[in-house]
Protein backbone atom coordinates (compact mmCIF):
# COMPACT_ATOMS: atom_id res chain seq x y z
CA UNK A 1 0.00 0.00 0.00
CA UNK A 2 2.79 2.43 0.87
CA UNK A 3 4.64 1.72 -2.38
CA UNK A 4 1.40 2.20 -4.33
CA UNK A 5 0.91 5.60 -2.64
CA UNK A 6 4.52 6.52 -3.40
CA UNK A 7 4.07 5.48 -7.03
CA UNK A 8 0.84 7.47 -7.33
CA UNK A 9 2.53 10.47 -5.75
CA UNK A 10 5.52 10.19 -8.07
CA UNK A 11 3.25 10.06 -11.11
CA UNK A 12 1.20 13.03 -9.89
CA UNK A 13 4.35 15.01 -9.05
CA UNK A 14 5.75 14.36 -12.52
CA UNK A 15 2.50 15.43 -14.19
CA UNK A 16 2.23 18.59 -12.10
CA UNK A 17 5.85 19.47 -12.74
CA UNK A 18 5.33 19.02 -16.48
CA UNK A 19 2.23 21.18 -16.24
CA UNK A 20 4.27 23.85 -14.48
CA UNK A 21 6.91 23.75 -17.18
CA UNK A 22 4.52 23.73 -20.14
CA UNK A 23 1.29 25.53 -19.21
CA UNK A 24 2.32 28.11 -16.61
CA UNK A 25 4.83 29.92 -18.88
CA UNK A 26 1.92 30.72 -21.20
CA UNK A 27 0.82 33.19 -18.53
CA UNK A 28 4.22 34.89 -18.49
CA UNK A 29 6.94 34.93 -15.91
CA UNK A 30 5.48 35.13 -12.44
CA UNK A 31 7.01 37.85 -10.29
CA UNK A 32 5.84 37.76 -6.69
CA UNK A 33 5.79 41.55 -6.44
CA UNK A 34 3.27 41.73 -9.30
CA UNK A 35 0.82 39.16 -7.91
CA UNK A 36 -2.50 40.18 -6.40
CA UNK A 37 -3.32 39.28 -2.80
CA UNK A 38 -5.68 36.54 -4.04
CA UNK A 39 -2.96 34.59 -5.85
CA UNK A 40 0.17 35.31 -3.84
CA UNK A 41 0.31 32.73 -1.06
CA UNK A 42 1.77 29.36 -2.14
CA UNK A 43 2.86 30.70 -5.53
CA UNK A 44 6.38 30.27 -6.87
CA UNK A 45 8.10 32.93 -8.98
CA UNK A 46 9.82 32.27 -12.29
CA UNK A 47 13.12 32.29 -10.40
CA UNK A 48 11.95 29.52 -8.03
CA UNK A 49 11.44 31.74 -4.96
CA UNK A 50 8.30 31.14 -2.92
CA UNK A 51 5.93 34.09 -2.77
CA UNK A 52 4.64 35.34 0.57
CA UNK A 53 1.90 37.76 1.47
CA UNK A 54 2.91 40.53 3.86
CA UNK A 55 0.78 43.09 5.67
CA UNK A 56 1.97 46.68 6.02
CA UNK A 57 0.30 49.37 8.09
CA UNK A 58 0.26 52.73 6.36
CA UNK A 59 0.83 55.98 8.26
CA UNK A 60 -2.91 56.57 7.99
CA UNK A 61 -3.48 53.33 9.90
CA UNK A 62 -4.80 51.53 6.83
CA UNK A 63 -3.62 47.98 6.21
CA UNK A 64 -2.06 47.25 2.82
CA UNK A 65 -0.99 43.86 1.52
CA UNK A 66 2.00 43.18 -0.68
CA UNK A 67 3.26 40.02 -2.29
CA UNK A 68 7.02 39.55 -2.06
CA UNK A 69 9.57 36.88 -2.90
CA UNK A 70 10.80 35.02 0.17
CA UNK A 71 14.29 33.64 0.68
CA UNK A 72 12.84 30.12 0.42
CA UNK A 73 13.43 28.31 -2.86
CA UNK A 74 10.96 25.76 -4.19
CA UNK A 75 12.43 22.41 -5.21
CA UNK A 76 12.21 21.93 -8.98
CA UNK A 77 9.20 24.21 -9.38
CA UNK A 78 9.09 27.64 -10.99
CA UNK A 79 6.43 29.94 -12.37
CA UNK A 80 3.57 28.37 -10.40
CA UNK A 81 0.36 29.68 -8.87
CA UNK A 82 -1.14 27.03 -6.62
CA UNK A 83 -4.54 25.72 -7.64
CA UNK A 84 -7.67 26.43 -5.61
CA UNK A 85 -8.21 22.66 -5.41
CA UNK A 86 -4.90 22.17 -3.61
CA UNK A 87 -5.46 25.17 -1.35
CA UNK A 88 -8.77 23.62 -0.28
CA UNK A 89 -7.52 20.02 -0.12
CA UNK A 90 -4.61 20.97 2.12
CA UNK A 91 -6.64 23.22 4.42
CA UNK A 92 -4.79 26.40 3.51
CA UNK A 93 -5.86 30.01 3.20
CA UNK A 94 -4.81 32.32 0.38
CA UNK A 95 -4.74 35.23 2.82
CA UNK A 96 -2.09 33.54 4.99
CA UNK A 97 0.74 35.89 5.91
CA UNK A 98 4.30 34.60 5.59
CA UNK A 99 5.50 31.00 5.68
CA UNK A 100 5.74 29.09 8.94
CA UNK A 101 5.92 25.57 10.31
CA UNK A 102 3.62 26.57 13.19
CA UNK A 103 0.58 25.27 11.33
CA UNK A 104 1.93 21.71 11.69
CA UNK A 105 0.97 21.99 15.36
CA UNK A 106 -2.69 22.52 14.45
CA UNK A 107 -4.41 19.09 14.31
CA UNK A 108 -6.97 20.16 11.69
CA UNK A 109 -4.29 21.43 9.32
CA UNK A 110 -1.99 18.44 9.90
CA UNK A 111 -4.86 16.04 9.16
CA UNK A 112 -5.63 17.81 5.89
CA UNK A 113 -1.97 18.06 4.85
CA UNK A 114 -1.51 14.35 5.52
CA UNK A 115 -4.77 13.38 3.80
CA UNK A 116 -4.46 11.48 0.53
CA UNK A 117 -6.31 14.31 -1.25
CA UNK A 118 -3.52 16.77 -0.37
CA UNK A 119 -0.43 14.64 0.21
CA UNK A 120 -0.76 12.62 -3.01
CA UNK A 121 -1.94 15.41 -5.29
CA UNK A 122 -0.33 18.70 -4.26
CA UNK A 123 3.46 18.32 -4.51
CA UNK A 124 4.18 22.07 -4.29
CA UNK A 125 2.46 22.35 -0.91
CA UNK A 126 3.76 19.03 0.38
CA UNK A 127 7.29 19.97 -0.65
CA UNK A 128 6.97 23.32 1.14
CA UNK A 129 5.83 21.67 4.38
CA UNK A 130 8.31 18.80 3.95
CA UNK A 131 11.11 21.38 4.02
CA UNK A 132 9.54 23.43 6.83
CA UNK A 133 9.09 20.27 8.93
CA UNK A 134 12.69 19.19 8.22
CA UNK A 135 13.84 22.59 9.47
CA UNK A 136 12.13 21.75 12.75
CA UNK A 137 13.70 18.27 12.83
CA UNK A 138 10.50 16.51 11.78
CA UNK A 139 10.40 13.97 8.95
CA UNK A 140 7.04 14.71 7.31
CA UNK A 141 6.33 11.22 5.88
CA UNK A 142 6.80 9.69 9.35
CA UNK A 143 4.78 12.51 10.92
CA UNK A 144 1.89 11.78 8.55
CA UNK A 145 2.22 8.03 9.03
CA UNK A 146 1.70 8.27 12.79
CA UNK A 147 -1.09 10.86 12.61
CA UNK A 148 -3.92 8.34 13.13
CA UNK A 149 -4.17 6.79 16.57
CA UNK A 150 -1.14 8.59 18.00
CA UNK A 151 -1.92 12.06 16.64
CA UNK A 152 -2.51 13.72 19.99
CA UNK A 153 0.61 12.20 21.54
CA UNK A 154 2.73 13.10 18.51
CA UNK A 155 1.59 16.72 18.63
CA UNK A 156 2.46 16.88 22.33
CA UNK A 157 5.94 15.52 21.58
CA UNK A 158 6.52 18.09 18.86
CA UNK A 159 5.41 20.91 21.15
CA UNK A 160 7.51 19.76 24.08
CA UNK A 161 10.72 18.46 22.55
CA UNK A 162 10.86 19.20 18.86
CA UNK A 163 9.99 15.60 17.98
CA UNK A 164 12.27 14.34 15.25
CA UNK A 165 11.49 11.03 13.64
CA UNK A 166 14.69 9.54 12.31
CA UNK A 167 14.31 9.34 8.53
CA UNK A 168 15.60 6.36 6.60
CA UNK A 169 18.93 7.92 5.53
CA UNK A 170 19.45 5.63 2.56
CA UNK A 171 16.31 6.78 0.76
CA UNK A 172 15.65 10.27 2.09
CA UNK A 173 14.46 12.18 -0.98
CA UNK A 174 12.57 15.38 -1.63
CA UNK A 175 9.06 15.13 -2.95
CA UNK A 176 10.34 15.82 -6.44
CA UNK A 177 12.41 12.62 -6.35
CA UNK A 178 15.90 14.00 -5.86
CA UNK A 179 18.12 13.22 -2.89
CA UNK A 180 17.62 15.68 -0.08
CA UNK A 181 19.88 16.39 2.82
CA UNK A 182 18.52 14.84 5.99
CA UNK A 183 18.03 17.28 8.85
CA UNK A 184 20.80 17.42 11.42
CA UNK A 185 19.95 16.07 14.83
UniProtKB/TrEMBL annotation:
<keyword id="KW-0732">Signal</keyword>
<dbReference type="Pfam" id="PF06521">
    <property type="entry name" value="PAR1"/>
</dbReference>
<feature type="signal peptide">
    <location>
        <begin position="1"/>
        <end position="28"/>
    </location>
</feature>
<protein>
    <recommendedName>
        <fullName>PAR1 protein</fullName>
    </recommendedName>
</protein>
<dbReference type="InterPro" id="IPR009489">
    <property type="entry name" value="PAR1"/>
</dbReference>
Amino acid sequence: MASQNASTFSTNALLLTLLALVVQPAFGNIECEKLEKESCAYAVSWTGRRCVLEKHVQRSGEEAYACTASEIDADKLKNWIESDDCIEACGLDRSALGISSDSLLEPRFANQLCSNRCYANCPNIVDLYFNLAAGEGVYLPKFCEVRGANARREMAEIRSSGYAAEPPHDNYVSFFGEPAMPPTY
